[in-house]
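Please predict the structure of the following assembly.
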Amino acid sequence: MVPIEYYLILSVVLFAMGAAGVLARRNALIIFMSIELMLNAANLAFVTFARQYGQLDGQVFVFFVIAAAAAEVAVGLALIVMIFRSKHSIDVDQMSSLRE
Amino acid sequence: MTTPVKLLDFITILPVIFLAAWACLLLLVDLWVKHKRVTAYLAALGLAIGLGLLWYQAAWIGNAGFNHMVVLDGFSVFVNALLLLSGLLGIALAYGYLRRMGIERGEFYPLVLFSLSGMMLMAQAADLIVVFLSLEFLSIPLYVLTAFAYPKAASEEAGLKYFLLGAFAGGFVVYGIALVYGAAATTALDGIIAAVAEGRANLSLLVSGAALILVGLGFKVAIVPFHMWTPDAYQGAPSAVTAFMSSAAKLAGFAALVRIFALAFSSLSDDLIPILWGLSALTMLVGNLLAIPQTNIKRMLAYSSIAHAGYILMAFTAFGNPGVAEVSIAAVLFYLAAYTVTNYGAWGVVILLERAGDLGLEIGGYAGLGRKYPALAACMTIFMLSLIGLPPTLGLVGKFYLFRAVIAADLIPLAVIGVLTSLISAWYYLRVVVNMYMRTGDPEISPEPWALTITGLMAILTVLVSLLPGWLFFLASQARLNLF
Amino acid sequence: MPNPWVFIGLFIIIAAIIPIGAIVVALILGPKKPNPIKQSTYECGLETVGDSLVQFKAQYYVFALAFLIFDVEAVFLFPWAIAMNKMPLYVALEGVIFIVILVAGLVYTWRKGALEWV
């Protein structure tokens, strides 16, 4: 057996990569992909714990996360496409219609 | 272990089911409706029926449904009633505003209803799965509503910013839930309590999970340092959406925060109190200080809403102290109700003065309002006094209960910060009043019957309820948290 | 039972072999007789107009997003369909309600004209 900890470490690394990506990148699409990475890190943790405890709860949770993430993707991509059409850029630093 | 679903299970979330179904139907009906006002009235009818169902449902207080996924307790009924009322107020404010701004699209009303049903489910959630689902269910329509003034650039950008940071916060919540699940082998709140009580839970994992959930919900209710989206989203969104978002989303976020932390994580309070202490002090300071230099009323109210999240969090800091928890939760509920009333009133004034093209939003533009529209200026003065916490308004009574809870919990330094920042806040709230009465100007208002009615009504409520606050506080203190 | 890392290694190797293999096989076996028509941008049999790095019509995205939603929501239908024989009536009905909600979404998309190809 691959020890449980390895999966958890992988999941923490993925989550940290995702969070760092959100904070460091300026392209809305890449920020968005980083957020998906965070969600999938959580999914990995859920599946790992579900296997450790021999339960199905964690796996079912993953279903819900995937479905909710898809709904978010649809809305998010629609927003990004909309902005790209009007500004021809999805760099979040260039979104300055609102004052800082 | 799991029991089959009974009719009672559906009764426990009857208003939520009804509202979501009504929103689906409304979305379809709207496709064939030419006058979007019909959709507005149908949405309001749905909310009124929802209130009726809530009344009917109240007879079953004390039940859990769907294998303890949701509960029906006094707390959830109180919060849901506030949410439904705030939905009605939001629709009333949007009714004329959307048309005037040229964004009268029928989807507005179903989206508000969808978001509301998510918020109501959140107030009833007794399992972290439901918390997550309802969080997404309330947030996704709000992202769309924020960008509703499309193709206006400010609104689109506000929508994207809110979306990116909201989804980011969602990631934190999910990961926090994963850690809690890893610590307690369950996502049910009662299961977590049992696991902690029996010593099965991995406490360090549980604390980190709780902290991540706090970060995620902190984003939703705009707690510093997770508030970056608030000013932009509140300013860029159509004002009617901001009014709804700043009241209802805050209400739902705090409902979830209170339920999760006061019930499932009350044993962790020793670890969490310093964090909450710091967050609430920071939120009060930053929110009030950054509100001072604002010249745009929407942005100022956004920072003010951050500051008020800080006051609410301040009362909640003592959640783990069994002697104080009940009083502090009642104070939080009372303050949320008071804030909802005042906030809708203030946004009503903003909506009346706003003109297409982002005009009439500068605080300087309020000059001369006292002479030209004395009644409206008086209403705005009442709301500003209430937001500061001066008599004779609801804000004073609300703050009194908040500070009483904080002092009872022996968190005197925090209370001092709260009082001092309230004094600071007088600076920028009174500037609006000074502008209205002491300066000359020629402001234009758009006399919309619904917005005028709501503004007047909220002003009357702000004063009247503050004279007789006992019954509302009684209701709030009856709104007990339970898992059954 | 062999070392479980063997499986992970196998996964990585197979995951790499399949795409690389497909490309390599196509390179080796495919006849190479280039002509201008073949090298032009592929666009569903139509004659290509202009540069290929143009902005796509928003329509493409609407289709893709609608597809995405319906595709992913099917994740709930698989367990539901598999447990069909063992579930009580109300669970079967809840699945039906779920599908009805999806259909409502489809009706909305259709009526809004997002499915028209213009």
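The two ends of chain B are 16 Å apart (CA to CA). The first strand of chain B starts at residue 63 and ends at 65.
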